[in-house]
Amino acid sequence: MAKFLTSLFLICLTFVFTRDVSASSLLIRSYSRSFNGFAAYLSLAESMKKEVVFVFPSRTYDLDTTRSWDFVGLGERAKRESAKESDVIIGVFDSGIWPESESFHDQGFGPPPQRWKGSCKGGRNFTCNNKLIGAMFYPKNSVSARDDDGHGTHTASTAVGNPVQGASFYGLAQGTARGGAPSARVAAYKVCLKDVGCKDVDILAAYDDAIADGVDVISISISREAPNILSNSFAIGSFHAMTRGVVTVGSAGNYGPDQGTVANVFPWMITVAASATDRRFVDRVVLGNGKASTGLSVNPVNFNGTKFPIVYGQNVSRTCPALQASFCAKDCVDRDLVKGKIVLCDEFLVNKEAYKAGAVGSIVLDTFTRDVSFVFPFPVSSLSLEDYSSVKSYVMSAEKPEAEILRSEEIIDKEAPYVPSFSSRGPSFIIKNLLKPDVSAPGLEILAAYSPEASPSDNPGDKRSVKFSIMSGTSMACPHVAGVAAYVKSFHPDWSPSAIKSAIMTTATPMMNVMKNPDQEFAYGSGHINPTNATDPGLVYELELQDYLKMLCAEGFGPQLLTKILGRNITCSERTEVKDLNYPTMTTFTTALKPFNVTFTRTVTNVGLPNTTFKASVVSPRPEIQISVEPEVLSFGLLKEKKTFVVTVSGKGLKDGSVVTSSLVWSDGGHSVRSPVVAYSINPFG
User: In this protein, which residues make up the domain named Peptidase S8/S53 (predicted)?
Assistant: First the structure.
């Protein structure tokens, strides 16, 4: 018992009050390879023993590219350090992986890096190779690391997939699918189970193993809010990864566009929002009267000019009230009334009912999201309110209404990049003076490898089997940044996680489309990733373990707790406010209408050229705030030399609910090191 009670973390899965039992008798999992802890069923008294650092319940979470890499400037001919890239290992925490996918073949790969300490324990009939060098699975009732959901294969191939020519989804998005670091190795850690989710107990086990195995980058496309910055498996695991030099990249969440919804806000993690590329998928509905409307969906089916009768949901139900019937609600669509017809539904999410009833297609009102094309199990067109109302009017007035749903087509989106509505927004409700998300990356309609066992539409009745599929979400954005982190590390193997993070953030391209993203940096962070520039950022903002500890002390985490976490004496004699954490962005929350004057102290390290001088400039100044920098010139004689400066941000008072943004840029004529400066009076608590 003593072994566990002195452990670093304890996950309480459920409290047991009925009898007095020891933790060892109800032990579920222990963590000992990279940190000390355990998961067990405990009584309330056991969970409150003084030797325990803290307890948190194990929760279950949801699993928050032929064009995307070209769009961000990392084309097939981009400069690479292939030999060094081959030494980089990305650990993917997800729903597993499909090992036979062409994206993970090992032709041309040598043996794994010598420092690799992991193993291939993927279960029966699961084989690793010199590309896919490791596999583990953790969920209860799981028997393999094999992916039966598709999500894990998609994210892994986005990060590190081999180039696969001729990839497509039934001819859509055809091209060469590849990851951001195609020469890197991948290890799959299955922490999510289809239709069940992803549990803290399994996520923490994966961190324990991956850190000890020797991964360089962890990609975790899972997100959920947390009450503080050290209160769940994401926070704990990524913190320990940081102490061991491992970069963790996490998704911001799919709870947008509301503000204050961003997840994975821990300062030692790279938090990624989703953005659009310049390729979109649309489909068109052509009515019997010749009028056409453009909707959203990924529809590979071609009706070949055949029009089918349209019936309104309200008219194809024998059992449901009118309102439910109009929505095509569950069990409201009568099979005998929709066979061979297209069903018109007033609600997006219930299109599956028309499919289940045997309709040939469905036209739905887009009540779910305004800017995403999804894969459906049959032809669907999701229309705006205006277009849907026009179709509905036709159906109600025509004697024999009919329509054709056309096969989807690819269009150029000239407004990209921008952040779609589903991507979670800041500010963080946990830590107000830290800008989150950190960056944005392609996450809208991304083609990548897929599990042939999984339904591409996530509909059990959809028996199609595909090698590649199209998905959207911050889950797709996250592995893009994991791939970039691996790419940067291949140029700079000795860089710390904070240096890699800084390089990605300060070279990101600002997205200035305020009409599409009025929440600005709270939508996209520092901007849209620019992988090639990230390999040569000029300056980096570095953070060490001691810096995070000082911040945690200032945030109210006591020395006793931190001593147990680190296994060495922490006194909290020095404290650093969040605003003065050496972060590549500068953010301040102010009380509305009150004058403010805030200083930010930052230190940059020269990683560009020796004997160089950087000059400061304020880009896109705003009249509501005044920004000054002291000194305005930084001269470096040597590489790795450090210089400190202070930024002062002041104002007479911001309107309630306003966000004012600008940027500080350090330039030596060849490098532009950009840091967003954000002042806001939004209260994420409402």
Answer: 86-525
Block residue for tokens 């928050």? 64
Q: In the predicted model, what is the mean pLDDT of residues 321-342? A: 95
The yes-or-no answer on residue 94 being catalytic is: yes
- What pLDDT is recorded for position 63? 54
* Alpha-carbon distances of 525 from 437, 503, 504, 510, 678, rounded to whole Å: 5, 14, 11, 9, 10
pLDDT in the model for residue 383: 96
- Give Cα separations from 168 to 67, 446, 455, 501 (angstroms): 11, 11, 16, 32
Residue 419: partners with Cβ closer than 8 Å, 6 or more residues away = 256, 273, 274, 275, 276, 440, 511, 516, 517, 523, 524
CA distance 170 to 168: 6
Token readout for 472 is 């959207």
pLDDT of residue 511: 78
Nearest to 403 by CA among 359, 436, 355, 459: 359
Q: Which residue has the higher pLDDT, 38 or 684?
A: 38
pLDDT band of residue 307 (cuts 50, 70, 90) is very high
Phi-psi region of 464 (alpha: psi -120 to 50; beta: other; left: phi over 0): beta
Cα separation, 216 vs 244, in Å, equals 9
Which tokens is 339 given?
């066979």
Sign of the Cα pseudo-torsion (202, 204, 207, 210, in order): negative
pLDDT over 60 (residue 593)? yes
- Is a pLDDT exceeding 90 seen at residue 9? no
**Residue in 63, 119, 125 with CA at minimum distance from that of residue 95:** 63
- Return the bridge partners of 606, or none: 539
Cα-only R_g, the chain: 26
CB atoms within 10 A of CB 637: 9
Lookup: tokens for 251: 């998704």
Unique residue bearing structure tokens 């020796």: 610
Which is the catalytic residue, given 94, 200, 519, 547?
94
Residue with tokens 């980096």, as numbered in its chain: 540
C-alpha to C-alpha distance for 384 and 390, rounded to whole angstroms: 10
Per-residue pLDDT tens for 533-546?
999 999 999 999 99
642 Cβ contact partners less than 8 Å away, ≥ 6 residues apart = 603, 604, 605, 606
Active site residue 157: no
| Identified catalytic residue from 86, 149, 151, 157 | 151
Label residue 562 by pLDDT band (50, 70, 90): confident
Nearest one of 295, 292, 296, 254 to 274, comparing CA atoms: 254
240: Cβ contacts below 8 Å, ≥ 6 apart: 34, 35, 207, 211
465 is catalytic: no
H or E element in which residue 42 lies: strand 37-42
Class of residue 220 by CB neighbours under 10 A (exposed 0-12, middle 13-18, buried 19+): buried
Q: Please tell me the distance from the alpha carbon of residue 338 to that of residue 317, in angstroms, as a whole number.
A: 10
**Of 626, 261, 562, residue with least CA distance to 427:** 261
